[in-house]
Design a protein that fits this description.
Shape: elongated
Strand content: under 5%
Length: 73
């Protein structure tokens, strides 16, 4: 199968756009992880134990699984 230079350029442009989207998502996830870690460290400094932090996170996971993320309790 032969492709033209124009088609090749379009394919490269599309693939580059996909890579850029994936890189942006990774950066956003890294920033979110850093924020979560900071919050957990702040809670630890306020006296919460590891067990209490785990219970808090498990409650959040349950909310996510139920589809309740972002809704007021």
């Amino acid at each position: 199968m032969k492709i033209t230079k124009r088609q090749l350029k379009r394919i490269i442009k599309e693939e580059k756009a996909k890579l850029n989207e994936n890189e942006g998502l990774g950066a956003a996830q890294e920033a979110a992880v850093e924020q979560i870690e900071k919050l957990l460290n702040d809670l630890w400094d306020q006296g919460l134990s590891n067990g209490e932090l785990i219970a808090l996170l498990q409650g959040i996971i349950t909310d996510i699984q139920r589809g309740f993320v972002g809704e007021p309790r």
